[in-house]
Amino acid sequence: MYYLTYRPKTIGEIDNIEPRETIKKILASGTLPHAFLFVGQKGTGKTSTARIFAKAVNCLSNSFSKSPQPSQHPQQPQTPHNIEPCNHCSNCKSIDLSSFPDVLELDAASNRGINEVKELIKESSYLPMAGRFRVFIIDEAHMITSDGFNALLKTLEEPPSTVIFILATTNVEKLPKTIQSRCIPIEFGRAKESEIVHMLKRIAAHAKLSITDEVYGLIASHSDSSFRDGAKLLEELVMLGKTDIDAAQSHIGLRSKNNLLVILGKQTVIEALSWIEEFSKSGGGCKTLIEELLHELHDDLLALNKIGPLSRKTTLSLLEIIILMKLLQEAYSNLRSSPIETIPLEIAIVEFYNKRSVH
Ligand SMILES: Nc1ncnc2c1ncn2[C@@H]1O[C@H](COP(=O)(O)OP(=O)(O)O)[C@@H](O)[C@H]1O
Ligand SMILES: [Mg+2]
Ligand SMILES: [Zn+2]
């Protein structure tokens, strides 16, 4: 799979500019912080970067291999020149295979309690076995319980000099301030379209694909600001042989059925109607579309009344949802008697815009 095969393996391959440059500077300075906080939404490279970092400081053939053990000379700053992991030495290789004894990954979503945290703290008191640093990567760090955080706090304050913690989270606001303030924050944010294009081109060069800039742009704008989603969408289009712009556009159009709700919330009636035209031209059926829209709206209705989880941020108000549901129900029952399949839906949409402007 592209997103795994072409996961960045060196600092230079990290496609988001800010975290890449920050990590570079920190590694080149030679004085390593003992705790990081990687913040950003899913698929922005937090885990990949944490592994690259762990390799860089434990690699047997870059500059770090030549500097003295940190435990012996904790104060002495070094200025490493070659900070990239080589990806070939035994340390780099076993970190890639997740079999290196000094790099420990913990998913806080499933190991969130005090006992797991205590176990981790105990582990952090051991000297490295095969590398220079023990690196603890704690994914979804915001899931740790408050007892767990309390236990971790002291260790984060004064960890052994051979230990580096990397906390990764999608929800930084759920992390206690006391924990945040002990870590160096690195913002992964959301992947920018230009950065996703950069990644797509990197993959295409490796995989020997020839794709136009227009298609790269289209993929990037439908990737939900995630490198992972971008790589997956590229692979999907390649597998289906739909990498020219027309084929890619109609494929992507079909995938994003529920985009219509977003358009209804934010854009004009003309845009909504042309979306329907486009949808139907590329082979989409109105019956399933209306069914799916009603399901979505039903979920939103329950969520706005606090009965169900809010899966998707709705841009429609409660009143608009109700108007739209009534109109779509009506359109649904008129489908069979309509000579042109899209007419009932189009009428519903036009009426929705009219009714909404009255309220
Ligand atoms: N900065 C990046 N540059 C290139 N590809 C990336 C980047 N970040 C993520 N990816 C792609 O997305 C996938 C998931 O990345 P991952 O590091 O697991 O993200 P996160 O931990 O933030 O969810 C990777 O396998 C890789 O293919
Ligand atoms: Mg991750
Ligand atoms: Zn190496």
Automatic annotation (TrEMBL):
Record carries keyword Nucleotide-binding: yes
Gene Ontology terms describing biological process: DNA-templated DNA replication
Domain of life from the UniProt record: Bacteria
Sequence similarity: Belongs to the DnaX/STICHEL family.
GO cellular component term, pick one: DNA polymerase III complex
One Pfam assignment: DNA_pol3_delta2
Cross-referenced InterPro entries: AAA+_ATPase (IPR003593), DNA_pol_III_sug/sutau_N (IPR012763), DNA_Rep/Repair_Clamp_Loader (IPR050238), P-loop_NTPase (IPR027417)
Gene: dnaX
Function of the molecule: DNA polymerase III is a complex, multichain enzyme responsible for most of the replicative synthesis in bacteria. This DNA polymerase also exhibits 3' to 5' exonuclease activity.
Name the UniProt record assigns to this protein: DNA polymerase III subunit gamma/tau
Single annotated GO MF: DNA-directed DNA polymerase activity
Catalyzed chemical reaction(s): DNA(n) + a 2'-deoxyribonucleoside 5'-triphosphate = DNA(n+1) + diphosphate
Keywords: ATP-binding, DNA replication, DNA-directed DNA polymerase, Nucleotide-binding, Nucleotidyltransferase, Transferase
Membrane-spanning residues: none
Organism: Candidatus Roizmanbacteria bacterium CG_4_10_14_0_8_um_filter_39_9
Subunit structure: DNA polymerase III contains a core (composed of alpha, epsilon and theta chains) that associates with a tau subunit. This core dimerizes to form the POLIII' complex. PolIII' associates with the gamma complex (composed of gamma, delta, delta', psi and chi chains) and with the beta chain to form the complete DNA polymerase III complex.
Residues covered by the AAA+ ATPase domain: 32-190
SMART domains: AAA
Gene3D superfamilies: 1.10.8.60, P-loop containing nucleotide triphosphate hydrolases
Record-listed E.C. numbers: 2.7.7.7
